[in-house]
């Protein structure tokens, strides 16, 4: 008489356990990477340079005319923002869009003694490459006056760049 050999759990369930284990590991890695991206982009979007640039572009009549309302910021902001105490620097490109089109906000700014100053704040419209300078008014170059009031930019359209 032959006796049946008892099979282990692994030998009975390997056909589904291996693929499920691999899937769980891959999903965990993907979730970790997505979490890092969300953290980095969230940190960049929480900076004063980012928020002020988007607010100024969204309130600018020339940008509203070109893109329509509402104007929303895209997820994949590129560039760098570095701060160290009361000083820092920002060089970022922020994608924005509205019902009538898309554009990119180019920001160059420095922070000194806790006060940020734009050296460049330009919206470049997608397709036409037309640029709208958000720093046209001299008083608009500083983000925050000593009184705490925010500066208001007068829109001006910069000439189209020549193709290189």
Distance between the termini: 89 Å
Structural class per helix/strand content? Answer: alpha+beta
Low-confidence stretches: 138-143, 151-164
Q: In percent, how helical is the residue content?
A: 25-40%
Shape: elongated
DSSP strand count: 7
The count of domains is: 2
SSE run: HHHEEEEEEE
Describe the structure.
By secondary structure, the chain is of the alpha+beta class. It folds into two domains: 6-46; 48-158, no CATH class. The protein contains three helices and seven strands. The longest helix is centred in the first third of the chain and has 37 residues, at 9-45. It is elongated and about 95 Å long.
What key phrases describe this protein's structure?
7-stranded antiparallel sheet, 2 domains, 164 residues, alpha+beta
Would you summarize the structure shown here?
Helix content is 34%, strand content 30%. With 164 residues, the protein is of the alpha+beta class.
Fold blueprint:
Layout: H1 9-45, H2 48-59, H3 61-67, E1 72-73, E2 78-84, E3 87-98, E4 101-112, E5 115-125, E6 131-133, E7 156-158
Antiparallel strand pairs: 1-3, 2-3, 3-4, 4-5, 5-6, 6-7
